[in-house]
Design brief:
The protein has 10 helices and 12 strands. It is α/β, with parallel strands linked by helices and 249 residues long. It has a single domain, classed as Rossmann fold (3-Layer(aba) Sandwich), CATH 3.40.50.300. A 6-stranded mixed β-sheet has the order 6-7-8-3-9-10, with helices on both faces. The protein has a 4-stranded antiparallel β-sheet with strand order 2-1-4-5, covered by helices on one side. A two-stranded antiparallel ribbon has the order 11-12. β11 and β12 form a beta hairpin. The longest helix has 18 residues. The radius of gyration is 18 Å and the shape is globular. This is Hemin import ATP-binding protein HmuV. Pfam families: ABC_tran. Keywords: ATP-binding, Hydrolase, Nucleotide-binding, Translocase, Transport.
Length: 249
């Protein structure tokens, strides 16, 4: 069942068309990778879905309901977004930041069940030893783990992640891609991940959206989308895929 439908989407920023003629359908229980060169509209797509950027033309429907009919509070129970532009500048502790992901549900009052839910997410993100540490004292990769924990604490059916692993060590990138895929499958979530790592996308994403110059180059199962032709035409790479690796000529 399609949970997210995008029809004839066009987004304009500062009189420049960033996305044009975007038609997509996303299903729950899958991980979608969004790839493309810088400036192809990847982040703009996620921000449009999250109602942070106003669309110029077209429509976005979530659970068959137009995005414009969602209040910010109601949307926060349906969509969570880890934005690459979110910065941790105030001296909150790790636990306090993660707790913010539950605020829509708790209004600041934690039950034992809610606390256990937060503690489990903190453990999944390997943040137990940093629980009481101020986020301003963390490394870039540690901050990304905190923000991922906060995002997952919203426990929404749709999870949007914009380059959320870029500063993490590679073993954490692999660990959390596995975790996200598990959550998609077991909890029937839709996870859409903007990323640059072609190999992680090929191995852990069910479907791939390739964007080029603000339009859909290809969209579908990763084996059919991540082709040698796409390497050249989208990423300007002379090479070929070989299993979950690729060779550069």
């Amino acid at each position: 069942m399609d949970i997210l439908n995008i029809k004839n989407l066009q987004v304009q920023l500062d009189k420049k068309i960033i996305l044009n003629n975007i038609n997509l359908q996303f299903q729950k229980g899958k991980v979608y990778g969004v790839l493309g060169p810088n400036g192809s509209g990847k982040s703009t797509l996620l921000l449009s879905i999250a109602k942070i950027i106003k669309i110029k033309n077209g429509s976005i429907h979530i659970n068959k309901k137009n995005l414009n009919k969602y209040s910010i509070e109601n949307l926060s129970k349906v969509i969570s977004l880890l934005s690459q532009n979110f910065q941790l500048k105030l001296p909150y502790t790790v636990e306090e930041i993660v707790f913010m992901g539950r605020y829509t549900y708790t209004k600041g009052i934690l039950s034992k069940e809610e606390q256990n839910f937060i503690d489990n997410i903190i453990e999944e993100m390997d943040l137990c030893k940093l629980k009481s540490t101020q986020v301003t004292k963390l490394s870039g990769g540690e901050k990304q783990r905190v923000l991922l924990a906060k995002t997952l604490c919203q426990d929404t059916n749709i999870v949007l992640i914009d380059e959320g692993f870029s500063n993490m060590d590679i073993h954490y990138q692999i660990k959390f891609m596995k975790l996200l895929r598990e959550k998609a499958y077991k909890d029937n979530k839709l996870i859409i991940f903007v990323m640059h790592n072609l190999l992680l996308a090929k191995k852990y994403c069910d479907n791939i959206l390739l964007l080029k110059n603000g339009e859909v180059y290809n969209f579908g199962e990763n084996e059919k989308v991540l082709t040698n032709k796409a390497l050249k035409e989208v990423f300007n790479i002379d090479g070929k895929f070989s299993g979950n690796a690729f060779e550069i000529f």
